[in-house]
Design a protein that fits this description.
By secondary structure, the chain is of the alpha+beta class. Helix content is 17%, strand content 32%. Strands 32-33-35-34-36-37-38-39 form an eight-stranded mixed sheet, with helices on both faces. Strands 3, 4, 5, 6 and 7 form a five-stranded antiparallel sheet that branches. Strands 8-9-10-11 form a four-stranded antiparallel sheet, with no helix packed on it.
């Protein structure tokens, strides 16, 4: 079977020299099969279907062969070591999170600089001594076990936490004694995208059935169920609380109101919209009530106060509003609007200190307003920079909360906020060997193909000359109602120091202007997203920021799809492309793990002939052209990515290497013991970004200043 499916030919000439990208590459020869699928009478070849088997020896050998060529190329780049030295220096500074209060104690995370994982600390009082309570770096020798959740119990007795191994979305839950840090015997498995909702001496959570051997990282996830786990008991004794066997795709996220009176379930059957059920915990035999049993809008409970549920929703408000629902009289006509929809997008709401703290987004950056519980506007919290604000966790009785401010050139600044007096006080600041005063951030607006006005942030050194010669990295996403806002990135400081322009485009499909903006870039309007990104590149070229020979593009996950699609459609615009963990096979994405959830954004190839034809028309895998002069391409993925399975990237690069006739490198970098990105240890992050930046700088003819 090995000989039938895979023939690897490694040519000695690929041991690279300084000019290797000028030559034609000798890639591993990936065997093809005659597999063909039929969609509505149209035959679609899938010759690399065998690469979907992540457990096969043939796939493992192919991965090894591809990595040998890729790392030989990357390690030969003359200045790679200089970039690694500088990025390591930049990364090596103390980092601290915003504190939060639970169970009478304060918790926060710290990293002394280069630790692979952040370490959790506890303080008895806000000004008290910090004590280390959990160090995830001790959970594995190589730093690939990451903490995914940290949930102290409200009574202060326990700390629950989740871990992920090797970057997988699969989580395991553990419990420790909050007083002494001793690990209890609790060990829960087969958990994915669940909360840990504490109630009495246990918590609610959701889990999937145990995966069949070999299907752990690629099998479809169905039949999610909600359980109650009592502390110090075996998982097999957990009590089943809710299931819905008639809807196997639905998943549930439980949470308990701060007053411990109501158990609520987020109910998901896609990545867009949710149902909402609730159960009265004061009544022993109460049943779940389907408060919302439609899945077209989002309903996000904020808190339960005096019998009323505060809910943030886009129901009847594309840019969101806040309503209260009386759970004893919950008919829709009885809902009361507390904060109505306005021009800016209401992104999230916290109820702290007897007030409503509303986080708004205006043209993709944050501003904060404070209201009474009845919705009366009180005041605005002044934010010192054009950036992104997060935080404001707490309970209605808390007088103090914390929030974090960051921008493209400003590392996180944590503020302590006095809710009653509207006073912010700087609590901590990250100190890094990077001078933000040398750079400027500018927001511009440009017109897409259909005339839609699109915002874009530009970051660069002061005194930039618009001569078309500036190396530029254009980043985009454009999907799933996700908004790209200003955030500090250590990795991108390397580019800024070396004269790059960093451009971040706020494409349709995201949430920057609410649900209408999202819907303008989904299903059979997905091409709008690609047009928006292409127009961003044209704007940067037309205005003299850069030129096609100096322009690189980057995107991950749905953004990897974006990059793959636009270099098929307009390859001449770009010199280098970095598609990461991308959804590249638009005809089969729904066949793996949680892929079915994305159908509300993408549609599926089985829906109808028109949807199939639309997906087939832009699918990155299926539109690679033998005559196109592609940019240099470095695909990145990981062997434990069980969200966008690596088969997408495997099949895509095999097809690109087969068909591309030019001399630029088209390579794939496959990380081991890593997943979709979250929880990757610092050491691996540094290695990956050094490779990415070395690749684009080498192919844009940029010599580092170091």
């Amino acid at each position: 079977m090995k000989n039938m499916y895979l023939t690897i030919i490694l040519i000695a000439s690929v041991i690279l020299t300084g000019c290797v990208q000028k030559k034609k590459f000798n890639y591993p020869v990936t065997n093809k099969t005659d597999h063909v699928d039929e969609y509505f009478g149209i035959e679609v070849p899938d010759p690399y279907r065998w690469l979907e088997d992540d457990n096969s020896e043939e796939t493992a050998e192919w991965v090894k062969a591809e990595n040998e060529i890729t790392f030989a190329y990357l390690n030969s780049i003359p200045f790679r070591d200089k970039l690694e030295k500088r990025l390591t220096e930049l990364w090596d500074y103390p980092k601290v999170s915003s504190p939060f209060k639970e169970g009478g104690r304060y918790y926060l995370s710290r990293n002394d600089g280069l630790q692979d994982q952040d370490v959790m600390y506890v303080k008895e009082t806000l000004d008290g001594k910090e004590t280390m309570i959990l160090d995830p770096n001790t959970l594995s020798e190589d730093g690939t076990v990451a903490m995914t959740m940290f949930e102290p119990s409200p009574d202060g007795k326990y700390i629950g936490y989740g871990i992920s191994r090797g970057g997988s979305d699969w989580n395991e839950f553990y419990v420790m004694d909050a007083d002494n840090g001793m690990l209890l015997k609790d060990h829960l498995k087969w958990i994915k995208f669940s909360s840990m909702a504490w109630y009495k001496d246990g918590f609610y959570y959701s889990r999937y059935p145990e995966a069949r051997e070999g299907d752990e990282l690629s099998g479809v996830n169905e039949y999610n169920k909600v359980y109650y786990h009592e502390i110090s008991k075996d998982q097999s004794a957990d009590k089943l609380i809710f299931e819905d066997p008639d809807h196997p795709v639905r998943s549930f996220v439980p949470f308990v109101s701060n007053d411990k009176q109501i158990l609520m379930l987020y109910v998901f059957e896609s990545s867009s919209g949710n149902g909402l059920y609730f159960k009265d915990l004061k009544k022993k035999k109460s049943r779940f009530v389907k408060l919302i049993d439609t899945y077209d809008q989002e309903f996000m409970p904020v808190d339960h106060i005096d019998g009323k549920l505060y809910v943030l929703t886009d129901d009847g408000a594309s840019r969101y509003r806040l309503v209260t629902i009386d759970l004893n009289n919950y008919a829709r006509e009885n809902w009361i609007e507390i904060i109505p929809e306005k021009e800016d997008v209401l992104k999230s709401v916290s109820i702290v200190g007897g007030k409503i703290i509303a986080k708004y987004m205006k043209d993709a950056h944050s501003h904060i307003e404070v209201f009474s519980l009845q919705g009366k506007y009180l005041f605005e919290i002044e934010i010192p920079i054009l950036g992104t604000v997060s935080g404001f966790s707490g309970k209605i009785q808390d007088k103090i909360t914390f929030y974090t401010v960051t921008s493209f050139t400003t590392p996180s600044i944590v503020y302590k906020y006095d809710v009653k007096n509207n006073v912010s006080e700087e609590y901590s600041r990250s100190l890094i060997d990077f001078d933000p005063g040398k750079y400027e951030t500018k927001q511009v607006f440009y017109n897409s193909k259909d005339g839609t006005r699109i915002p874009m942030f530009l970051v660069y050194k002061k005194g930039l000359t618009l001569n078309g010669e500036n190396p530029t990295l254009l980043y985009g996403y454009g999907g799933f109602n996700i908004s790209l806002t200003p955030r500090f990135s250590i990795t991108k400081t390397i580019l800024l120091e070396n004269g790059f322009v960093f451009a971040q485009a706020n494409l349709r499909g995201g949430g920057e202007y609410g649900e209408e903006w999202h819907k303008a870039g989904i299903l059979m309007k997905k091409q709008n997203v690609f047009d928006d990104f292409i127009a961003a590149a044209e704007y940067l070229i037309d205005k003299g920021y850069t030129s096609p020979d100096k322009l690189a593009i980057q995107g991950g996950s749905n953004g990897g799809l974006l990059v793959g699609a636009v270099i098929n459609q307009r390859p001449e615009l770009f010199a280098a492309a970095l598609p990461a963990v991308g959804v590249m096979d638009m005809l089969r994405y729904q066949k793996f793990t949680i892929g079915k959830y994305w159908a509300t954004d993408y549609g599926t190839s089985e829906d109808n002939p028109k949807m199939f034809e639309y997906l087939y028309h832009y699918s990155p895998l299926h539109n690679i052209c033998t005559k196109a002069d592609y940019p240099a391409v470095l695909v990145t993925t990981a062997d434990h990515d069980d969200r966008v399975v690596p088969a997408h990237s495997f099949k895509y690069i095999a097809t690109l290497q087969e068909n591309y006739q030019g001399s630029r490198p088209v390579l794939i970098r496959i990380e081991t013991k890593a997943g979709h990105g979250a929880g990757m240890p610092t050491s691996k992050i540094i290695e990956e970004y050094v490779d990415l930046w070395a690749f684009i700088m080498y192919n844009l003819d940029v010599e580092p200043v170091y």
